[in-house]
Design goal:
Length: about 375
């Protein structure tokens, strides 16, 4: 891996950073993760339209789909700069990161025409229908059922921990189309409009005070068969490839680095920085962040060289969750009583980490994948 940025990559980062700082002055000084209600949709699209107009939003996509034929590194640079100020793209980071590429790789021409242009234009809002109450991140055990009825599928079932439903227009939905097949071989992917009759969304309150997760219920929901992505019962391979993109799509290591810099400033202002214990914990957190960064960059490097997806994505995901939690716990410890306030730097850092080990696949499932695919440990 070449650790130096090219002139082109450096210029791209500067363009994104300048745009962000001009549009959101002061956000960089107070790292806050932002969630957006449906009424705030325009706040998201104002940014994504400006990124689009400057050819920054999907620079790593092929030109035929609205991109600029740049390398995968452009996408991660964009993510780092936007996550450093709390990811003001909202759910559109997910559309650009893995939903669009999944449609590129597996979609019909009609599906590509319908969806890819809207994503590259900064218009599309998606959610993912993966986890279920009895299966969690064990996707192979999902039960949400889709039964073929002529030119349609009839969908019944439930999804849970579905993020970004407050803005979503479409759902990337995993369903079981063959209940008699082996678990991994009876799954299909449907692209479902969230306005379809029979879909009910119920927000899940959580201790972080956010409404970013929801239960989604499907009752006799009719989905055109033309909305199936890829072959019937071939969804497992599609979602496995997509998840390797998702695992490192949110560069939380960069946000952790920004928070850590802010903690150093806080420690100096409050005469805590010269404490050797404080310095030691800051150093340990910095090491964890940089380890997560390098492991994630390894995955991006594979993608840039068009290497098939590997288990390295799961290793990177584990390190990212651990580093983010380490920074959050350090913030609470360092700031003490001041950190209990949810509006403090510690509060804005700690609360989002409570869901970090769930979103994008649970931490425990990632450990199981690392144990089996990387360490080759036997199942008990």
């Amino acid at each position: 891996m070449e650790f130096a940025w090219t002139e082109e990559e450096t210029a791209y980062r500067e363009q994104v950073r300048t745009l962000v700082d001009d549009r959101y002055p002061g956000w960089r000084d107070k790292p806050v993760h932002h969630s957006f209600a449906r009424s705030e949709r325009n706040q998201v699209t104002e940014l994504t339209h400006e990124l689009r107009d400057r050819k920054l939003l999907t620079a790593h996509w092929p030109a035929e789909y609205g991109g600029a034929d740049q390398s995968a590194w452009m996408h991660i640079i964009l993510g780092e700069e936007l996550w450093s100020v709390g990811e003001p793209r909202g759910p559109q980071y997910m559309s650009v990161n893995w939903i669009g590429p999944a449609i590129m790789a597996n979609g019909t021409e009609e599906q590509k025409q319908e969806h890819l242009g809207r994503i590259s234009d900064g218009e599309a809002f998606w959610c993912q229908g993966f986890s279920e109450p009895d299966s969690g991140s064990d996707l192979a055990s999902l039960k949400c059922r889709a039964v073929r009825d002529g030119d349609e599928y009839i969908v019944n079932g439930q999804k849970i921990w579905t993020s970004h439903t407050q803005l979503a227009e479409w759902c990337f939905l995993l369903v079981r189309t063959d209940p008699d097949a082996e678990p991994h071989k009876g799954i299909s992917v449907l692209l479902v409009s969230m306005d379809t009759p029979g879909i009910e969304v119920r927000s899940i309150a959580n201790v972080a005070g956010e409404s970013s997760f929801a239960e989604v219920f499907f009752t006799d929901v009719r989905v055109p068969a033309a909305n199936r992505l890829g072959p019937e019962n071939g969804g497992w391979d599609i979602v496995r490839a997509a998840l390797t993109y998702e695992r490192v799509g949110a560069p939380r290591w960069h946000r952790g680095s920004v928070v850590l810099d802010a903690l150093v400033v806080w420690a100096k202002e409050h005469d805590r920085f010269d404490d050797p214990i404080v310095q030691s914990r800051l150093g340990e957190a910095k090491a964890a962040i940089e380890a997560a960064r390098m492991l994630a960059y390894r995955v991006v490097d594979e993608r840039a060289h068009k290497v098939p997806p590997s288990p390295n994505a799961y290793v990177a995901r584990v390190s990212m969750v651990r580093a983010e939690k380490q920074v959050a716990e350090l913030a609470l410890w360092l700031m003490g009583e001041q950190g209990i306030d949810g509006e403090s730097l510690a509060g804005h850092t700690f609360y989002p980490t409570l869901t970090a080990g769930v979103a994008g696949g649970t931490y425990e499932v990632q450990l199981n994948l690392v144990a089996g695919l990387v360490l080759q440990l036997p199942r008990r």
